[in-house]
Specification:
The chain is built from 3 helices and no strands. The chain has 73 residues and is an all-alpha fold. The protein has one domain.
């Protein structure tokens, strides 16, 4: 059975995302930087062992089996 790291998802959504938005809001970010942020998020979430669930699933609402993770565009 696959365990979804709900605690780590909560840390990403509440602590890390708020700090990133605060730091990045006054500057224009490149596509490479945003891609790197997304990669670091999911490396933290899955301990660097690759995604166990598709990122689209993790971004979904709770009712659809997701964790409502933030996805930077």
């Amino acid at each position: 059975m696959l365990e979804v790291p709900q605690g780590k998802a909560l840390i990403l959504k509440s602590l890390i995302t708020s700090q990133l938005v605060y730091i990045l809001s006054p500057i224009q970010s490149s596509a490479e930087a945003i891609k790197e942020i997304n990669t670091m998020f999911y490396n933290f979430l899955w301990n660097g062992k690759g995604d166990k669930l598709k990122r689209n699933v993790m971004i979904n609402y709770y009712s659809q089996g997701g964790l409502k993770l933030i996805f930077f565009f």
